[in-house]
Amino acid sequence: MIVISAASGALGRLVVDNLRARTEVVAVVRDLGRAPEGVPARHGDYDDPASLRAAFDGASRLLLISSPELDPSRKTRQHLAAVAAAEAVGVGAIAFTSFLGAGTVATGMTEAYHATEQAILDSGLPYTMLRHPFYSDAFVPRISGGELTGSTGGRGLNTAFRSDLAEAAANVLVGEGHLGRAYDFTGPLWSHPEVAAALGVTYREVPDTGPGPMSWINGLVRAGALEQQTPDLERVLGRPAETVVSRLLGRRTP
Ligand SMILES: NC(=O)c1ccc[n+]([C@@H]2O[C@H](COP(=O)([O-])OP(=O)(O)OC[C@H]3O[C@@H](n4cnc5c(N)ncnc54)[C@H](OP(=O)(O)O)[C@@H]3O)[C@@H](O)[C@H]2O)c1
């Protein structure tokens, strides 16, 4: 039995959709009214350790989907409660949706992810770290009036779509040979000027709209911080990951 935590979220639903025809899957949600349809659901709240023990009981594999909590201390506490519950009930293996860099960087954006990876290693449970890049879904550029704008300085982005990351997670959960490994998942490198050229529109660099998460991420992109590439996602998928250009061509209105 494969148990998916935070299964009511966008990523969790995609993982459940991918797995339901392949194996026995249980969705763990903090609100049973938001559970994905068609699979058994259990209540499990990262702020309620007892609920997590009951929710994870009997799992041959657990996918621990990271909490959306922004405060690193609380996020760490939630994840560590989940790892402790997994250890207490003896799940067969744990896969964790971590973040790129979390293996080595214990501060800033990856603080909670690093602490969680360490707790998983300390637990002695068989594990797979699924280190995610930023999700492409939030970065697909808008085209308006025959032009594409961006504030990324033309540098590369290694984002990947949730749908591919969900399929990769599902492959790890039902597959063999993934235990004791950390995957650094990156999507096909893309840039705003390249996407504009592929779509036959002009590219115009525009100033950031101001402080906020996107502006912060644009700064990271301009510094080249999202240009790391690995073959891990393509290997686990067994095919190339979806590109931003193909998503845009699929969605573009005439
Ligand atoms: N790499 C990236 O670019 C990126 C972007 C966004 C998020 N993330 C991370 O990836 C995770 C999955 O992404 P997503 O797109 O699926 O996020 P999402 O759609 O916001 O889903 C978040 C999930 O976490 C659940 N949750 C919130 N608080 C919880 C708690 N106390 N106990 C148990 N579950 C709780 C939510 O439950 P409800 O349905 O009850 O609210 C929901 O199922 C996020 O939580 C976040 O850590 C990564």
Number of discrete helical segments? 9
| CATH fold-level label of the domain at 1-132 | Rossmann fold
The portion of residues forming beta strands comes to 15-25%
The name of the CATH architecture of the domain at 1-132 is: 3-Layer(aba) Sandwich
Q: What is the top-level CATH class of the domain at 1-132?
A: Alpha Beta
Count of DSSP strands = 10
Helix content: 25-40%
Gap between N and C termini: 45 Å
Q: Tell me about the biggest sheet?
A: 7 strands, parallel
Ions, cofactors, ligands: which are bound?
A: NADP nicotinamide-adenine-dinucleotide phosphate
Q: What low-confidence regions span 5 or more consecutive residues with pLDDT below 50?
A: none
Mean pLDDT: 96
* Biggest sheet strand line-up: 3-2-1-4-5-6-9
**Pairing-aware structural class of the strands and helices?**
alpha/beta
From N to C, what is the helix and strand string? EHEEHEHEHEEEHEHEHHH
Q: CATH-wise, what's the superfamily of the domain at 1-132?
A: NAD(P)-binding Rossmann-like Domain
> What overall form do the CA principal axes indicate?
globular
Q: Which key phrases capture this entry?
A:
254 residues, alpha/beta, Rossmann fold, seven-stranded parallel sheet, three-stranded mixed sheet, 9 helices
